[in-house]
Amino acid sequence: MLKRMHVDATEEIARRDKDLLTGLEKAGFKLDHGPDDAGISPSPIIDYVANIFTERTQIGFFMKYFQRGGGYYIDVGASQLIIDGKIKIKQGQEISEVKPRSLLFADGTELPADEVVFATGYQNMRGTASKIFGNELGDRVKDVWGFDDEGELRTMWRRTGHPGFWFFGGNLALCRYFSRMLALQIKALEEGVMKYDDQ
Length: 199
Known about the structure:
Elements: H1 2-16, H2 18-26, H3 44-53, H4 61-68, H5 78-83, E1 95-99, E2 102-105, E3 110-112, H6 125-133, H7 135-140, H8 172-190
Antiparallel strand pairs: 1-2, 2-3
Helix pairs in contact: 3-8
């Protein structure tokens, strides 16, 4: 149901931002509409989030956020610079060499650059936890983001598989809402109302 609502919202956002999205594609910016063409939710929380950043939010944002914890772009002004050619982008090619004033790609092309931003993606927070706290904790913690067999978010704002260790992520609007849910779980554990292994 949630994903279906996102599909409708994504279609509307793409319609409203047609010129922007067309301009980005012409500049070489690869777009997608998120998992199963799902995007920003029409819920008040998400409307609030979208309005904080910009009215032009990259399509595919919210379901990608829930499933991967990343993989989206929120326009805060750079889109028009990309469209106008003031910011150059290159996607889908391996970099073979970083030169003092350019990048050389595996396909033989060279891109002059004053600045280089490597937007290489995100790793699962479980891997980061292992690096910081060691494999003993990392091996007990479940994967973060995505959906479990019951359709619930995996591990974010809920039990992780390691007692007393919690993942908490997202922007201010989501953190304000889900901090209450997490606090209630911790309180229930502390008061003995539930046990950590309860489902």
